[in-house]
Amino acid sequence: MLDTSMTRGSGVDPARIASLRRAEMAVFEAARPKSKAAFGQGLAGFHGGVPLHWMRDWPSPFPIMVERARGATLVDIDGNRLADFCLGDTGSMFGHSPRPVVQAIRRQATRGLTYMLPSDDAAAVGRLLVETFGLPFWQVATTASDANRFALRVARAVTGRPKILVFNGCYHGAVDETFVRLKDGRPANKKGLAGEFRDLAENTEVVEFNDLPAIEHALARHEVACVITEPVLTNCCMVLPEPGFHEGLRRLTRQSGTLLLIDETHTISTARGGYTRRHGLEPDIFVLGKPIAGGVPASVWGLSADVAARYDRYLESKESGYSGIGTTLSASPLQFAAMRATLREVMTDENYARMEWLAARLKTGLAKAIERAGLPWHVARVGARVEFICAPGPLRNGGEAQAAHAPALEAAIHVALVNRGCLIAPFHNMMLVSPATTSAQVDRLISAFGEIAGALGS
Ligand SMILES: Cc1ncc(COP(=O)(O)O)c(C=O)c1O
Question: Could you tell me if 435 and 94 are in contact, meaning their C-beta atoms sit under 8 angstroms apart?
Answer without folding.
Answer: yes
